[in-house]
Here is the input.
Amino acid sequence: MSKRRIRVLIAKPGLDGHDRGAKVVARALRDAGMEVIYTGIRQTPEMIAEAALQEDVDVVGLSILSGAHMALCPRVVELLRQQGMGDVPVLVGGIIPDEDVPALRAAGIRGIFGPGTNTQDIVAFIRRELALQEPEAGER
Amino acid sequence: MELVKKLLAGDRRALAHTISLVEDDGPEAHAALAALYPHTGRAHVIGITGAPGTGKSTLVNALARLYRRRQLTVGIVAVDPTSPFSGGALLGDRIRMRDLAGDAGVFIRSMATRGSLGGLAQATGDVILVLDAAGFQRVLVETVGVGQAEVEIASSAHTVVVVTAPGLGDEVQAIKAGVMEIADIFAVNKADREGAEHTVMAIQMMQGLAPQAMVPGSRADDGWEPPILKTVATRGQGVAELLEAIEAHAAYLHESHLFERRERARVLGELEAILQAELLARLRARLPEERLETLVEQVLARRLDPYTAVAQLLESGGSL
Ligand SMILES: Nc1nc2c(ncn2[C@@H]2O[C@H](COP(=O)(O)OP(=O)(O)OP(=O)(O)O)[C@@H](O)[C@H]2O)c(=O)[nH]1
Ligand SMILES: [Mg+2]
Here is the structure.
């Protein structure tokens, strides 16, 4: 019998030190039955990719308020790809101007969530992404 | 097994996958462990336990850095509790271990207890084996912030460091008897705070009074005097001394042949636990569900006592 649970890495890249939003999302995912690895603030894309590998996560969530998303998000996706984790969905939450959304999507960011997002939408998004990957993921 | 081959060749992604496999008790978990087992038995396993917030993760970070400076590789397992309500978990120990990022000689894995109550997850022992097989020379295991009964680390680690800190209120509350007895080393962390000396004295007093009860993994009879060391994990103060004490304890275990004795006891306990679970599973598979229920009814109605009921069960179960 497998005891598999959805594992999510929540990281806060960039230099701003406000992690309230990231913590709220981390708790919501835990309350939805997921195992959330929270790595804290000021993470470099390299640190995030390394933690994602060691923790063998199914999803990576980035929280960015600093405006550096255009530099940071694609870099995380790229590093994950380089280490053979290109199938791991990356989502970003925070203040993302509309005009940046197409470029982020093109760079491989799967989900983009603005400041007012209901955490349940993020839970549902993650479940849907993983269900797309493998049919039996619903039982995880 | 392809995965195991890659792991043994140093592939970190294969290592991460294998840990997931044994953690989830997946279909190939036993085969993977069987293939890895001949490569285990080399790591020295160090348990870091103590009340919530005493600085366990920060100490693990500082210790790992020092070990790396001595050219020793370090595997880390950090356990946090699973929420009994949702089955989910918030694993936050990595926050304090950021200094270790980017070092190929370190591998950090967070684990949720998944319902286990002993301060570790059920699969923590197997994850330690995987890190051992992958060649990490020291494995540091951070338990959940423990109260008193969570002493499982005593049978999984060779050296147990019990971490405490001043200002937790009642010192006697902070180090409960069961946890006292499994300590090979005491670290009074946050020694930069007022009251550290008082905490040291409280531990010394309790050492004098320690009851010789047989707690599982009790270190009472081994002739080793647990040293009490003051540390400031955030600044790395006292951490070199802590590392020396751990290494001294490791040497003592080998010189005194306690190491073999404990390993023997551990393996025996492990075999018995597996045997118990396996026998129960086989009996269950063989008996129709109603059979057990009928017996429960009969015991409830006081027509049978539990011992006779089990004897009947075993008879009808045939040879296992
Ligand atoms: N003043 C002081 N603070 C410290 C020291 N060591 C750790 N801390 C702080 O204590 C807090 C808790 O440290 P952690 O390392 O997370 O403690 P922990 O025992 O791992 O906590 P849990 O895993 O939640 O049980 C953090 O804010 C640390 O920065 C120390 O030596 N002195
Ligand atoms: Mg911790």
Q: What stands out?
A: Residues 40-256 of chain B form a domain with the Rossmann fold fold (CATH 3.40.50.300). Chain B has a mean pLDDT of 90.
